[in-house]
């Protein structure tokens, strides 16, 4: 429950570009045991951070950020594509989505010469049909491929529009800064889970017994303090601390458990935090901006997997 709550609470915000400095120094992300993270990167509409913690022997979660052209046309549109694919039963489906969904989206965007909900819907359908075709071909030799699957959460920022598409139980939250009051409003764009739910408030209070203001009723809305800044790496670590707490063990001991066995304590976890610069978002979708391609990392060693192992890659901004 806390992992879902953190996705809701920590839809972090950052002030506009004239008030912050880009501090990213890592070019391909960093590995710390089973934790892979990229603390800061720049996309067409602002900045982002990513983090992945692995529990399965083969990482079943896949994720990506693609920023720049959203079609093959010189005229655009341009923007940012974010995808998180929570695989189950194996990594084959999530890897397939990671390799094909964005390419289908660019193809349909080129055909329609614009971004739309219909373009995203067609990209989902084409990806699903492609994987079904792969399953049909491999079924006689590898029947177990029919037992794998994946959730699919996508966000597309194009011009002044934010498109969200979700199949499965992943979560997306929009954190919105109210300039007049300095408050941050959190708007969950998928299934509901917020501090307005009594059980959530009780859980927060039990986790922070020494903080009487961990949840506060302000303007008739329940709020959680500390909703100002954060990173994907912090969110992943918060989820790990919760996994350790539920097992009544120390976080440091949980970190020593290798992948595979770690799955008995928690699933693969992927978090992407996207900071939107209002000045950049307001620009027309014809604004090119930097081109970027990042895939979430993890430890993928050759094993009895149906799909070939993928290596995390990144193309720097150009």
From TrEMBL:
**PROSITE patterns for the chain:** PPM_1, PPM_2
User: Cell membrane: is it a keyword of this entry?
Assistant: no
Q: Which SMART domains match?
A: PP2Cc
Question: What GO terms are given for molecular function?
Answer: metal ion binding; protein serine/threonine phosphatase activity
Task: State the gene name recorded for this protein.
Answer: LOC105059665
Against Gene3D superfamilies, the record matches this protein to: PPM-type phosphatase domain
Query: Which keywords annotate this record?
Result: Hydrolase, Magnesium, Manganese, Metal-binding, Protein phosphatase
Q: Which family does it belong to?
A: Belongs to the PP2C family.
* UniProt cross-references to SUPFAM superfamilies, sorted A to Z: PP2C-like
So which domain of life are we looking at? Eukaryota
Protein's name in the database? protein-serine/threonine phosphatase
**Which parts of the sequence belong to the PPM-type phosphatase domain?**
47-276
Look up keyword Manganese and say if it applies.
Answer: yes
**Organism in which the protein naturally occurs:** Elaeis guineensis var. tenera (Oil palm)
InterPro entries named in the record: PP2C, PP2C_BS, PPM-type-like_dom_sf, PPM-type_phosphatase-like_dom
């Amino acid at each position: 429950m806390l992992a879902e709550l953190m996705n809701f609470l920590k839809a972090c915000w950052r002030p506009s570009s004239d008030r912050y400095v880009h501090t990213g120094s890592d070019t391909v992300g960093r590995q710390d045991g089973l934790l892979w993270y990229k603390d800061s990167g720049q996309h067409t509409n602002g900045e982002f951070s990513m983090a992945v913690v692995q529990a399965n022997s083969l990482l079943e979660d896949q994720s990506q950020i693609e920023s720049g052209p959203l079609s093959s046309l010189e005229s655009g549109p341009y923007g940012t594509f974010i995808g998180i694919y929570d695989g189950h039963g194996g990594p084959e489906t999530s890897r397939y989505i990671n390799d094909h969904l964005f390419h289908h989206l660019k193809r349909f965007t080129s055909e329609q010469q614009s971004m739309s909900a219909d373009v995203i819907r067609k990209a989902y359908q084409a990806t699903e049909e492609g994987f079904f075709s792969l399953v049909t071909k491999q079924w006689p030799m590898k029947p177990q491929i029919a037992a794998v699957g994946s959730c699919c959460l996508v966000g597309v920022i194009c011009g002044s529009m934010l498109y969200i598409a979700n199949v499965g139980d992943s979560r997306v939250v929009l954190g919105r800064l109210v300039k007049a009051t300095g408050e941050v409003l959190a708007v969950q764009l998928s299934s509901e889970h917020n501090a307005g739910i009594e059980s959530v408030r009780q859980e927060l209070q039990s986790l922070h017994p020494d903080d009487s203001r961990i949840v506060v009723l302000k303007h008739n809305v329940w709020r959680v303090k500390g909703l100002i800044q954060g990173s994907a790496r912090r969110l992943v670590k918060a989820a790990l601390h919760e996994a350790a707490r539920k097992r009544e063990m120390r976080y440091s001991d949980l970190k020593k458990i290798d992948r595979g066995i770690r799955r008995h304590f928690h699933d693969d976890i992927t978090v992407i935090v996207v900071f939107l610069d209002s000045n950049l978002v307001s620009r027309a979708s014809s604004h090119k901006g930097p081109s970027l391609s990042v895939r979430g990392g993890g430890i993928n060693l050759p094993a009895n997997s149906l799909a070939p192992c993928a290596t995390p890659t990144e193309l720097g901004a150009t």
